[in-house]
């Protein structure tokens, strides 16, 4: 059995989509990031970077003790290797997929995350117009990269649905909040609709819907408390 340390955000949904698509049994362990669960001593042992998702596989392939894995890209490589699904292993296909998984975690995730962050912030912390323009433009550039890539292939790595699609899709669901217009990206839109229609993807996206809260509907003091947890993070002191 796999324990999935999870909260329903785009990074978490990358893993639920994989698990639902492949029918891999798992158990959700909620990590309420608005409450600060990511800083608990137990979670820090699993991921010193205090971010979900993370997994613990209690039945690893080598027959040894439980294995913990953090970082969504590493988790998808691990699960794809374990199940033999969505990561073809011939040399050329393998690296076709690998480079797009790494592209997602190094480019699409961080930049779209910052686009959403600064666009939501308003002027609470002063004038954000440069940051909003910078990250909305970066988001636009990255949708352009997907659009160009999908112009002449069905999925990101070719004819087959792979972990490159699994990892990139959940970040595109909120294209409006990232300041984009989907009709500008015709080839991307075709892929977005096709991937979004897969039942496994829909099930994966829905996991934890009961856990999610719309923070913008909470009382102002509660919103402030959550902002302090999420947006004022500095190094955790380490004992000598
Ligand atoms: N590069 C990491 C990013 C994970 C990440 O940023 N997770 C966010 C939620 S989407 C988180 O746990 N945030 C907690 C916090 O900001 O304290 C991955 O791909 O797994």
UniProtKB/TrEMBL annotation:
Pfam family, one: GST_N
InterPro entries: Glutathione-S-Trfase_C-like, Glutathione-S-Trfase_C_sf, Glutathione_S-Trfase, Glutathione_S-Trfase_N, GST_C, Thioredoxin-like_sf
Record-annotated GST N-terminal domain positions: 1-87
Domain of life: Bacteria
Positions of the GST C-terminal domain: 90-230
Homology family: Belongs to the GST superfamily.
Name of the featured protein: Glutathione binding-like protein
